[in-house]
Amino acid sequence: xxxxxxxxxxxxxxxxxxxxxxxxxxxxxxxxxxxxxxxxxxxxxxxxxxxxxxxxxxxxxxxxxxxxxxxxxxxxxxxxxxxxxxxxxxxxxxxxxxxxxxxxxxxxxxxxxxxxxxxxxxxxxxxxxxxxxxxxxxxxxxxxxxxxxxxxxxxxxxxxxxxxxxxxxxxxxxxxxxxxxxxxxxxxxxx
Length: 191
Fold this sequence. Notes:
Nucleoside Triphosphate Pyrophosphohydrolase; eight-stranded mixed β-sheet; alpha+beta
């Protein structure tokens, strides 16, 4: 039986902080919202709620799959608001598949088959006045995946202008912490 969302999130955040987080990754707002019992699985919860995203790498870690996001107007890793799934990484994988059509997606061995996040990035996002949504925070649980960059992609035009494999260095302006962690996994000279 799958644990309730709140229990899974509490466990994932605790494990991340104990095993992966740097000394400045306090995740204070996320932890406060967990302690307050906020429904972080609902996109209507403010000041923040959970999203998941995927760093989809080529097997040699030299390229990453990115999307040109319609609303945000820049290239990002695929991801989106939490929707019920058996795990956080399954939610991230579903977002990558929906937005890019990437096939053969597999969880990176770094995760050791667990739901331990690679990065937790709490970041500000603009609201949507048309939805009555204020500016808020996305607590993004990010996971690593591998896929064949030679397989065809099909961008989900409602949400993304395009999906494309880019050089890994493109993450420098998008997700510097994610890039640094990915580079630490890659043997010197492999890129």
